[in-house]
């Protein structure tokens, strides 16, 4: 009893002491200055800067292709006249440059090192179009995270990615770099990549600043010809081309890049509407915009500036804060200010935005990269494993008659044929960061590593990917005749995709189609594996060859991933993120088109179609097969009617009705059949990739609300109009179940 009382007293004393201690602690803390916020630090620094130093922060210059800096950079940095470089990389080199900024420049403003880390830094992942074919944004998030970790450890702070341009024209080579033709899928991948690159805080030692590009509508280049003009209505801008950028901005992307093209007569790099009204005012973006490579100076060629001086004024006044490679801001900024063609406020706002991002990156506090950590950050086994998995998840099985695939690993002999079969550079593809060709695994090497020791693997190139010679055909045919099965790997080389790689035809280049025909004619079971960076027109192959695997350009483990799929270790579950036309002449052909007043009818000549080719694509958007079969059934809506700002739950049953575990991508589309403006025949508004065991059944649920059901009306207001809506759910954009619901007037 006594003891308990005593304990209580001691406890009370202890509590009093604790309270006193906390009170003293709080009082001291409130007296000590709180750390300055980013905005305070930016403003304090800005107040100390000369005009020359301010303009210097708006300049970015190119390093050498091998990653080295140029001697001139050091001198400019010393003088405070260079804020950023591109292509300079490697911990040691970037530190060397950074030391000049931190020790020898007046204001010690760190340099921002940018680089195109598009689908990997050293561990190269599949091209972005391929990752979009996974319909699994977490694939892109993980690959961006690996890229960020490798890049940051190599001194790179900033990647010029993700490219989120919608591409409805596969002639355009840069379709490779994006997520394909659809804004909803594109937005999901934009968000995922930004998260992967930046994380929650891009000052972290394994994160980089991202850059959504190319702002905007660069993918609509007329004729698919790179850098070409675009003419796109504001509705289409807002509904098709803006959404992935909006998603990136909402995900916190720190920068955007202004594109090369003109938009309805006004170049994107001098476009006040897109740069200021939409980006800064409507979307409240507080990061900065960098021009594309010399796109400020190119305003002269566009014909909206007579000289570099006018170009500088046009771009900076419109809202491009940093100039890449051309030097108009620096050369003419002071003169423009003096002549009142540029205001001090405009310059200050641009510099403020650049500095804000440098602070958010943590560069002022941690300007250097740990040189000892660099090597250990690259090509980690788990990163390479993830690249293989990403490539497998990205592949799309386009055809598989009579279960030609998967092949048995114990097969007696295989002929591996074709110009891309042993091409490692094609797996690397364009924009391959610091990737090395020798790290890549070719399809041939992947197949050899996969089959049993008894299997004989024969190889013949057959022909080049480009060029006219058929001299190798005979050997290829002989090899096929000796084998139990022929795998023909055809498509595009690395230099046929990416920037400045537009093609006037999307047929298989060179003599490759004839090679496939010659092999098929041997009567041996033939499998075509496509290695390519864009949809290809392959009607003959689709009509005649029993099995086709779209493998894209798979990165460092591409060849192994192809073998994983061909031999059934991975059951393909990817779906096309872009329509595959039957012929180039069908372009533009995309699934979310308008109905027209005369939708195509076979028996009616005066309807919207061609005389010489069907109006349908060869493979539609969202298409892809599996080694198992899925059934989608029992489409149910939570209500027959909803309010204009209400929510509707849609669910459907998906069942694996085959004999293997596999993945299905359940896709939801809507249509607003009667509105004050024509609406697309279908619009993707939901998707889920699910893995099911044989016999397994699952309900998949989607929620639709105002964000999915509305559009930009004639007055350019976003509205949900009352009336009937259709909802369609299926395994691709064509084979769908359909239901209706009603949206009530408010
Ligand atoms: C491309 C950009 C790229 C930049 C820097 C330009 O030619 O259009 O996508 O980020 O170069 O390499």
Report on this structure.
This protein is α/β, with parallel strands linked by helices and about 750 residues long. Strand 14 (about 485-490), helix 21 (about 510-520) and strand 15 (about 525-530) form a beta-alpha-beta unit. The mean pLDDT is about 95. The site of beta-D-glucopyranose has 7 residues, from loops.
Keywords:
746 residues, alpha/beta, five-stranded parallel β-sheet, globular, binds beta-D-glucopyranose
Strand and helix map with partners:
Blueprint: H1 2-31, H2 38-48, H3 51-57, E1 59-62, H4 71-78, E2 84-86, H5 91-104, E3 112-115, H6 128-133, H7 137-153, E4 158-159, H8 183-198, E5 211-215, H9 234-241, H10 243-250, E6 255-258, E7 262-263, E8 266-267, H11 272-282, E9 288-290, H12 299-302, H13 308-318, E10 323-324, H14 328-338, H15 344-360, H16 374-377, H17 381-394, E11 396-400, E12 413-417, H18 424-428, H19 443-450, E13 456-460, H20 473-482, E14 485-491, H21 512-520, E15 526-531, H22 539-544, E16 547-550, H23 558-566, E17 630-637, E18 641-643, E19 648-656, E20 662-671, E21 683-692, E22 697-704, H24 706-709, E23 711-712, E24 718-719, E25 723-730, E26 736-744
Beta-D-glucopyranose is lined by residues 86, 116, 160, 213, 292-293, 499.
């Amino acid at each position: 009893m006594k003891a308990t009382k005593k304990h209580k007293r001691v406890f009370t004393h202890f509590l009093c002491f604790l309270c006193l201690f906390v009170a003293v602690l709080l009082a001291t803390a409130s007296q000590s200055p709180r750390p300055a916020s980013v905005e305070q630090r930016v403003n304090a620094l800005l107040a100390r800067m000369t005009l020359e130093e301010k303009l210097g922060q708006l300049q970015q210059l190119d390093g050498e292709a091998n990653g080295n800096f140029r001697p001139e950079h050091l001198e400019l940095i010393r003088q405070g006249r260079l804020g950023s470089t591109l292509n300079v990389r490697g911990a040691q080199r970037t530190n060397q440059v950074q030391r000049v900024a931190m020790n020898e420049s007046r204001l010690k403003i760190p340099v921002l090192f940018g680089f195109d880390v598009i689908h990997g830094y050293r561990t190269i992942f599949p091209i972005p179009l391929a990752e979009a074919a996974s319909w699994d944004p977490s694939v892109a998030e993980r690959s961006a995270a690996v890229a960020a970790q490798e890049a940051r450890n190599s001194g790179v702070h900033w990647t010029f990615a993700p490219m989120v341009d919608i591409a409805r024209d596969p002639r355009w080579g840069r379709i490779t770099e994006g997520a394909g033709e659809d804004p909803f899928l594109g937005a999901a991948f934009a968000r995922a990549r930004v998260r992967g690159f930046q994380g929650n805080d891009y000052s972290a030692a394994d994160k980089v600043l991202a850059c959504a590009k190319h702002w905007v509508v660069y993918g609509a280049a007329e004729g698919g010809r790179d850098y070409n003009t675009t003419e796109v209505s504001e509705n289409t801008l807002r509904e098709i081309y803006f959404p992935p950028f909006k998603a990136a901005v909402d995900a916190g992307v720190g920068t955007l890049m202004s594109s090369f093209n003109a938009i309805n007569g006004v170049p994107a790099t001098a476009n006040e509407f897109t740069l200021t009204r939409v980006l800064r005012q409507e979307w409240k973006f507080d990061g900065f915009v960098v021009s594309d490579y010399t796109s400020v100076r190119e305003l002269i060629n566009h014909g909206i500036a007579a000289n570099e001086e006018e170009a500088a004024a046009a771009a900076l006044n419109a809202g491009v804060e940093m100039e890449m490679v051309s030097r108009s801001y620096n050369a003419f900024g002071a003169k423009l200010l003096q002549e009142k063609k540029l205001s001090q406020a405009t310059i200050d706002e641009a510099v403020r935005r650049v500095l804000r991002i440098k602070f958010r990156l943590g560069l002022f506090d941690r300007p250097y990269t740990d040189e000892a950590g660099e090597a250990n950050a690259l090509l980690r086994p788990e990163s390479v494993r993830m690249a293989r998995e990403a490539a497998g998840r990205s592949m799309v099985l386009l055809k598989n008659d009579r279960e030609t695939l998967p092949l048995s690993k114990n097969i007696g002999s295989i002929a591996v044929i074709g110009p891309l079969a042993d091409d490692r550079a094609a797996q690397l593809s364009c924009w391959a960061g610091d990737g090395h060709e020798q790290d890549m695994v070719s399809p041939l090497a992947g197949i050899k590593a996969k089959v049993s020791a008894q299997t004989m693997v024969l190889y013949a190139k057959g022909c080049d990917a480009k060029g006219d010679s058929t001299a190798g055909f005979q050997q290829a045919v002989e090899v096929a005749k000796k084998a139990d099965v022929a795998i023909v790997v055809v498509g595009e080389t690395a230099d046929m995709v990416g920037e400045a790689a537009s093609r006037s035809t999307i047929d298989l280049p060179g003599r490759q189609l004839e090679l496939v025909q010659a092999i098929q004619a041997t009567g041996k079971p033939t499998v075509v594996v496509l290695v390519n960076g864009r949809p290809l027109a392959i009607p003959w192959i689709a009509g005649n060859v029993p099995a086709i695997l779209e493998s894209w350009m798979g990165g460092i483990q591409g060849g192994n991933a192809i073998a994983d799929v061909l031999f059934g270790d991975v059951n393909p579950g990817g779906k096309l993120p872009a329509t595959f036309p039957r012929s180039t002449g069908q372009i533009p052909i995309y699934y979310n088109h308008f109905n027209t007043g005369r939708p195509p009818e076979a028996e009616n000549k005066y309807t919207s179609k061609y005389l010489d080719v069907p109006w349908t694509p060869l493979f539609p958007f969202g298409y892809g097969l599996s080694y198992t079969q899925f059934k989608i059934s029992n489409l149910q809506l939570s209500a027959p009617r909803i309010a204009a700002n209400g929510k509707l739950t849609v669910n459907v049953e998906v069942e694996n009705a085959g004999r293997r575990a596999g993945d299905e991508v359940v896709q939801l589309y809507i249509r607003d059949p009667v509105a004050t403006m024509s609406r697309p025949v279908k619009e993707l508004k939901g998707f889920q990739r699910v893995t099911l065991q044989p016999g397994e059944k699952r309900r998949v649920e989607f929620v639709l609300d105002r964000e999915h059901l509305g559009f930009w009306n004639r007055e350019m207001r976003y509205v949900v109009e009352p009336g009937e809506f259709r909802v369609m759910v299926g395994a691709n954009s064509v084979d769908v179940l359909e239901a209706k619901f009603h949206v009530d007037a408010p």
